[in-house]
Amino acid sequence: MLNKDQFADNHFIRTIIEEDLKSGKHEAIQTRFPPEPNGYLHIGHAKSICLNFGLAYVYDGQCNLRFDDTNPEKENQEYVDSIKEDVRWLGFEWSGEPRYASDYFDQLFDYAIGLIKESKAYVDDLTPEEMREYRGTLTEPGKNSPYRDRSVEENLDLFYKMRDGAFPDGSKTLRLKIDMASGNINMRDPVIYRIRRAHHHNTGDKWCIYPMYDYTHALSDAIENITHSLCTLEFESHRPLYDWVVENTPVTGKPRQYEFSRLELLYSITSKRKLNQLVSEGHVSGWDDPRMPTISGMRRRGYTPEGLRLFAKRVGISKSENIVDMSVLEGAVREELENSAPRMMAVLNPLKVTLTNYDAARAESRTAPYHPNREEMGSRELPISSTLYIEADDFSENPPKGFKRLTPGGEVRLRHSYVMKCDEVVKDADGNIVELKCSLDYDTLGKNPEGRKVKGVIHWLSAEHAVPVTVRLYDRLFTVERPDAVRGEDGEYLPFTDFLNPESVKEITAYAEPAAKNLPAESRWQFERLGYFVTDRKDHRPEQPVFNRTVTLKDSWQPK
Ligand code: ATP
Ligand code: MG
User: Fold this and answer.
1) What are the pLDDT digits (tens) for 40-71?
2) Catalytic annotation on 272?
3) Could you tell me the distance, in angstroms and rounded to a whole number, from the CA of residue 94 to the centre of ligand 1?
């Protein structure tokens, strides 16, 4: 459930909106989230979604979902569908139907005709290389194209012919006539149309010319009456062009663009192109691989919408660098799961324990609550029997100082159950510990043992009742903070794929309580003392459980 306190507060965009509402400049706000459907959404998009939909929610406005689909070669329906699913999963609903920049292609074409008629746009024949030469540099002005002074009639004729397929791909462009000497390179006669014979996921083969991003984006915002168009800082220098387009076309909407800093997540990557590379080169199993920082990957990993929204609130909105450690994301997810996930016990690396004094008539199976402070979650019975499994590393033959768990001759509390003493260690021919022989103190159920203190508490299972489960132990995908910013000896960037963590996933067979049987997919649990786990969205079967480790209980991550 959304509530108004869940969103980043007191940031500069909120201040602007509050002033605009107070002064009566706008009666209500209208924002939009404008993804390009050329990949799955990632954690950076989650920040932008929480901002745009969150503001609309907080100020009782509306937020559109608009696909910015002007690059037909890279875009497709699978991406459109995944984006819709991800936005909804994060807890948001867009206003009306999803929109597409391509819905406006006819209008955009008409506006271009209008610009040509006002001598504000011209058809150019420069090749891409020539155009680059003419563009100038940051310190030198550009030069006018020799085609800049074509007559309105000639431009109209050529532009219609461009649309009608008279020219080969890339041979001509439509450019705005602004100022080749502008200090802002974006204002040096930007291209607004190019010829590209490509099938479009929405408009099919209707068009062989496609409008460029800046032109399309500004006009789409204006057409939709967006009041506050929020984008990341790299578009700051595009703002004069955005304003120019809005001012020089007969649109009624007067959107304003505001920029905030991009989220960068350490030990991760937030670029669709690079994420695409991970998928296409097979470094991960797909866009929704639980190690991916995509929304669908994080979902499969067991992150919750509430956890991601909490993270977005914590990273906040500003214009200063927004480089955030992975531990902040994991911390938000953990904090939210602490409250929402029921508990059960599971043993990942079992060591067999035989209870030598087990007496079925005396040993009581106890019930334990699913959550220590949420009674409404109910409770389950924890069966006990003569053979138990405990975690192998909860026993130490030569315990280091401070070790509080089981040792030869030592005692430990079985979670929710009796105090147990280790009487004998059984080894195989190679000296490996294969079994412990232990005894229960029957006088310790729900109370401290007489005359001594037992400090350690360990999790355990009744072997006879334990359910075998597949567990995937996920870890971070990269071993360094900034995998795409490491330089080699020659000063060149090394491929980010050099820093993939070879141990980012390990699949094991483990055991869990009977409660692990017959769970639906995406059921989230805390395995006591181990971490948070979720039944896999794809591979889990109620009778054959598959759990993904979402995050460990404590932040103990160390670079390997
Ligand atoms: P990428 O580089 O991953 O392809 P993009 O900006 O090209 O990102 P779009 O689909 O155009 O991807 O993004 C849709 C919206 O999400 C834009 O408004 C963009 O500014 C925002 N966005 C994308 N990445 C981030 C990020 N890392 N942090 C915050 N907002 C982001
Ligand atoms: Mg983009």
Assistant:
1) 999 999 999 999 999 999 999 999 999 999 99
2) yes
3) 18
